[in-house]
Design a protein that fits this description.
Layout: H1 9-17, H2 22-39, H3 50-56, H4 63-72, E1 76-79, E2 83-86, H5 89-92, H6 95-104, H7 109-115, H8 134-137, H9 139-155, H10 164-176, H11 184-195, H12 207-217, H13 220-235, H14 251-254, H15 259-264
Antiparallel strand pairs: 1-2
């Protein structure tokens, strides 16, 4: 993050709105920029759902509150094509990313949006008027209205007025987005299939995981192919942890928007670019000596070619 950013008004507004300490707000923005540099290099961060963005930076509070604050404070811009764009991303990205885009003739999402005039200046929030003290201006009318209101309330049957518990229960159900998740049978089938593999086990289908699974199941292609993709991931030594970083596939990785497509395309096969290198004598489940071991070739995400890095994290 650039020097002086923490003194800007938009930074202070974000810090106050999300009730963050200075170091927390700084870490939040740095984490989002790092995520975008890796997985949304055009600045089109809206291709991920709110839950996926929150999950990528380990935000444990409500994902919608995070995104609403980022938009309201001017860090994200809403867009009809990209849904969300990082504000002025093209002006603040690292030089290596600018070079990659220039080399391949690509444009950043904020540049495209400005050209078609989609990203407009955010309207200023109206100033809140100070509430007038009605009781001081009209003391007699206020007392009469209050008395009349209490009499009216007394005549309403008790079963018509919802209790506080009923109101809270309704609010929690609405906020949690329960209707957006998968059905009970779908969730149980997925967890049972996942835990039948040799990948990182799933002890609990958390609310965040349930929302991700529900989002993926809305896609007909994903619904039709996830079982085969899971079988292929389980058959991949790389996904099972046979790699130089000790990485092992988990549910969050599998539920990313394009993971199953990459699996089906063979990216994580034993002879693929992220699997054990072709021609290697390594066999799954066998420990090789240091002199005979051949490391898989890993493509650096910071080279001139801005393709996604082979290592999925």
């Amino acid at each position: 993050m650039k020097v002086g950013t923490d003194s800007k008004l938009k930074f202070k507004k974000l810090k106050m709105r999300l009730r963050l300490a200075l170091w927390e707000a700084t870490g939040l923005l740095e984490s989002i920029w790092a995520f975008a540099s890796r997985d949304a290099q055009d600045g089109d961060i809206g291709k991920f759902s709110n839950e996926e963005i929150a999950l990528s930076i380990e935000w444990e509070r409500d994902p919608d509150d995070l995104i609403d604050a980022m938009v309201a404070c001017g860090w994200f811009d809403k867009d009809p094509e990209f849904r969300l764009i990082i504000h002025d991303w093209s002006q603040h990205v690292p030089n290596w990313l600018k070079g990659n885009h220039k080399k391949h003739g690509k444009e950043f999402a904020d540049v495209i949006a400005r050209r078609r005039g989609a990203t407009k200046e955010r309207p200023r929030e109206p100033r809140k008027e100070r509430p007038r003290d009605v009781a001081k201006e009209h003391p007699r009318e206020t007392r009469c209205e209050a008395a009349q209101g209490s009499e009216d309330a007394a005549t309403i049957p008790s079963h018509v007025i919802p209790s506080q518990n009923q109101v809270k229960s309704s609010q929690v159900k609405t906020a949690s987005g329960a209707d957006a998740g998968p059905s009970k049978d779908e969730a149980e089938e997925f967890v049972e299939a996942w835990n039948g593999t040799r990948l990182t086990g799933c002890r609990k289908l958390t609310d965040a995981r349930r929302r991700l699974l529900g989002t993926r199941l809305k896609n007909a292609d994903w619904r039709a192919s996830w079982r085969e993709a899971l079988r292929m991931a389980d058959a991949s030594p790389f996904c099972r942890g046979v790699n130089d970083r000790g990485w092992k596939a988990d549910i969050e990785w599998f539920l990313r928007p394009d993971t199953t497509t990459k699996i089906m395309e063979g990216k994580y096969d034993a002879n693929g670019s992220t699997g054990v290198a072709s021609g290697s004598s390594h066999q799954p489940g066998r420990v090789q000596s240091a002199g005979n071991r051949q490391e898989p070739e890993i493509v650096d995400s910071f080279d001139d070619d801005d393709d996604d890095p082979d290592v999925p994290f």
